Amino acid sequence: MKVEEINEKFFGDEKTHRYLLDVYRECVEKLIVANVLVEVWANSKAGHGHIKGRNCNTCAVFFQIYFSCVDSMFLHLRLLFSRQEPALANAYLESVRDLNIEDYESYYYDKYEHKVSEDEKKVIEPLFPLAKDHLSKISNLYLKRVEPYQAFAFHQPKDGKYYKVTTGQRAEEGMTYVTHTLSRKFKHDLRPAKEMLDLLAEVIHMYLKVSSKYYHVLKIYPQNYVKETVWILGVEQVGDEAIEDMITNANKHTEDMIHLLECSGGLNSHNGLIFKKIELAQRTNNTC
């Protein structure tokens, strides 16, 4: 696949299509909300007469909401990174990995009648090993984190690969019942989701810089998600100072992702390939 084909397939402008960054943005939204819920629960636990164990009804409600959000996030991650999706992350990374400098020479000459210089080649060439390396890392994270979660949460196969069953007994009303408890074998946290999204952001950001590709801005404001989540939950124990801390954490946690979504790709002030001839053909006012 050539550069122009990648631009059209993954960063097109058809309003009826869901492109790579549209699904990426949805994953970032889910990740922000899931992290906010953890912080809301931590800040409110002391204020609602928390009882350790499963007897705390307030905590039970929080966790039900939280795990519903995490399920939604992992479903979006599966959509974004699945090898079965022909127009999303895995296909995109493979396409970028398979490019070479000759593809860029043809692209810039055919599109802008510009001959890529040796210095410009040095800016472009690191993209190819970066895409290969990050594709491998993302694939490993997917197999170790996303696939086990979806198998445990949604499919529950009977092979016992991702979970174990503990057999016990429970006495109730003079009767003894045999119980079987299903528990996961894998770690349950949000860090792999952040790592996968950050890795993908790094490749996309570099690709757009060297491909003179413009895409529509998909801004996200973490502070809005924090305030709305706290308001919807109606948590009175969370004060203004705690909310500001959550906003700071949300911005810090998703810094690379937000930066990607806020920057229109193509020719802008931090693009290493701003050519005079190209600027005349495709002017932008982006200052990202």
- Extract low-pLDDT stretches: 266-277, 284-288
The count of helical stretches stands at: 12
pLDDT averaged over residues: 79
The main pleated sheet reads as: 2 strands, antiparallel
Shape: elongated
Oligomer: single chain
How many beta strands in the DSSP annotation? Answer: 2
Rg on CA atoms, Å: 23 Å
> What order do the SSEs take from the amino end to the carboxyl end, as H and E?
HHHHHHHEEHHHHH
Distance between the termini: 28 Å
Strand order of the largest sheet: 1-2
How many separate structural domains? 1
- Tell me the β content: 5-15%
Helix-residue proportion? 55-70%
Structural class: mainly alpha
Please give a structural write-up.
The protein has helices at 3-10, 20-44, 57-81, 89-97, 101-112, 118-124, 127-155, 191-210, 222-233, 240-253, 255-262, 276-281, and strands spanning 163-172, 175-184. It has 288 residues and is mostly helical. The chain has one domain (3-158, 190-281). The protein has a two-stranded antiparallel ribbon. β1 (163-172) and β2 (175-184) form a beta hairpin. α2 runs antiparallel to α3 (57-81). The longest helix is centred in the middle third of the chain and has 29 residues, at 127-155.
Which features characterize this protein?
288 residues; 2 strands; mainly alpha; 61% helix; single chain; two-stranded antiparallel ribbon
Brief sketch in words of this structure:
The chain is mainly α. The protein is built from 12 helices and 2 strands; from the N terminus they run H-H-H-H-H-H-H-E-E-H-H-H-H-H.
